[in-house]
Specification:
The chain is of the alpha/beta class. The chain is built from four helices and five strands; from the N terminus they run E-E-E-H-E-H-E-H-H. The protein has a five-stranded mixed beta sheet with strand order 3-2-1-4-5, sandwiched between helices. This is Putative pre-16S rRNA nuclease.
């Protein structure tokens, strides 16, 4: 069973997919957001291509654990994903995943331009990996 991880942003959606055993997470792509309909068309294509059976959406919480406006947008997106894609959708705490992804890319000496292109995909990998590790 493959699981898809999503890191939602205003302009992009980072996408990662697990292996069939649910041990590893690999970055797949960064979707440039246009309309919700087009976003879900692309996600549907990826679900079919990778035979995804479950989706994990990053839920940005405030450091005190409360849900702010960004978190509410993620909740709304997750509900729409459940309806549109017909799959179970789990919200997963994503606090500091983008910061951690940025630090990892800086440590790997990835250029600023290249980091901007892959940061959301890396954050999706970290969200999915955290979920996979917690399931074990």
């Amino acid at each position: 069973m493959r699981i898809m991880g999503l890191d939602l942003g205003d302009k992009t959606i980072g996408v990662a997919v697990s292996d069939e055993l649910g041990w590893t997470a690999q970055g797949v792509e960064t979707i440039k957001r246009e309309t919700l309909t087009k976003d879900f068309e692309r996600l549907k294509q990826l679900v079919v291509e990778y035979n995804v059976e479950e989706i994990v959406v990053g839920l940005p919480k405030n450091m005190n654990g409360t849900i702010g406006p960004r978190g509410e947008l993620s909740r709304s997106f997750a509900e729409k994903a459940r309806e549109t894609l017909g799959l179970p959708v789990i919200l997963w705490d994503e606090r500091l995943t983008t910061v951690a992804a940025e630090k990892m890319l800086v440590a790997a000496d990835v250029s600023r331009k290249k980091r901007k292109q892959v940061i959301d995909k890396m954050a999706a990998v970290m969200i999915l990996k955290g979920y996979l590790d917690a399931r074990k």
